[in-house]
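Changelog excerpt

This revision adds worked examples to the README so contributors can see how folded entries look when concatenated. The first example is reproduced verbatim below.
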Amino acid sequence: GELLDWYLVFTDDSGIGCANAGECANSVSCLADGGQLSGPAFITECEGDNELDLTINPSYGGGGGPPASEYDYTFVIADANTDIFEDITMDTDLSSFPPGAYQICGLSYLIADESLLPTADGSLEVSDIEDQIDDGDYCADLSSGCTVVVIEAPVSPPTIAGPLEVCAGEPVEWLITDYDPSLNYQVFINAGSFSFFNFVDDLLTVEFISGPGEICFNIDNPVCGDEETCIDIVVLPSAPEFEIIGETEVCPGTTTLYTVE
């Protein structure tokens, strides 16, 4: 016999522009692909550091991504704690951002749909953008992974209240007046000898034997750098010990002699 006709029935319509198996539509499938973001998934830097001018690019496992003539790529920046997105931008420079935790996700989109992309309104979350994409509101695709950036605030040197002159052999206290329990404080005695040292929370107690002394209060901050306040201490010699010898009970109007040894 003769083969008069033939056709193929696709059970998976993705990528061929067909709405139903065997029935081709005129529309073209969305080819947006957010890929996988390059670089570390977690970054911690200090506010204003040049390292926050990030370079992040998508990778496609050896592929080239969607056609550049029809698709473009941008980034969604959101609050990492609330998921509320703050901006859609091609600029991943966070050096002007205030301290906080941010999430950067890649977004591939059809250039013809750029005007349909959402804008930040203070309530829209990244999950809402994913829902809009799934609902077909516009042709786009979020990256399969995001980058979390934590920006820490620099700290000021600690402020210390306490005497600058002490007597040898007497315990003396110094107080950190702007103490923050979330920070890690260290105290170093760089000069002078002492017989007693105790540092708890915001209070330092030292008994110097001789001087001059120097005490340094340090805030350990591995991200923004340590901050330190040092004070110079004059250690005065202790007063000589002496004994007063004389009567301890006297009558009114009488004269009593005392000697000092």
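The second example, added in the same revision:
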Amino acid sequence: RLAASEEGDGKPGFHTSVARNAILLLPASNYMEQAVWLLEVLTSIQPARFFVVFIDPTLTALQCAIGERVVETGSGEKIKSEVVRVAIPAKFEHFLPHVLRPLLIAGVESDLFLVRCGEIPRALIEMSASLADRMIFDSAETEQGLIQAARMLGTPLKLVDLNWLRLSAWKDQIRNSFSRHSLQRQISKISAVTLRYRGGEQPPGSVLLLAGWTTEKMGLSIAAYGNSQYECLGRIGTIVALKFEKECDGSETLSEV
């Protein structure tokens, strides 16, 4: 749906697009600054009706505020998005779907954005998922992010993990490296796959995601764990070692495959 108003003085008018719903689910109100930043990004890309939702254990009654956000384009046109902020008392969190559903624009798709997904209770995610068509999150935000992401696999939604999307360059490079016919014949001779990373003692989520993708593409299945590595079984019975090696301290990141 698109509505336009003309100012009558030759200047561009306002356009209000309400062709999509977007729910930003926060674990608590102290993440509002991160939600505001996310709103700034999203409203400049896809105007919609936005909901900023969080559970507040200090409240005794539901609080709701309705506003708008205006983004000016390079041509001077102003695009408006609707923003609905909803704070729900912890004891009433099971009413969340009933509160939001009547406010959603009917007949359009709805996205559910999880802010700090590893800190949001699983039950709250599942309730919110019933309102959406697609769930967008970043499993790298918290230590429990990848575990929470695995639990989301049971939902009927389309899942978009930003941590997974960041690996696109790595996946493309690996795929291109073995696209040549001469190298394809050597895949069966690979005896070990090593993923090196920077950060803590445990491999970051991005390393584990790429390890899973690599083993799936190579047709490997994990058979055993020992000597700080996984032993995988190939399609023709070959044994391939899957190793994780810490390179140095620093920010958590994948450094070499």
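Reviewer comment on example two: The helical segments are 32-45, 96-100, 122-129, 145-152, 162-165, 168-177, 181-184, 205-217. The longest strand covers residues 78-89.
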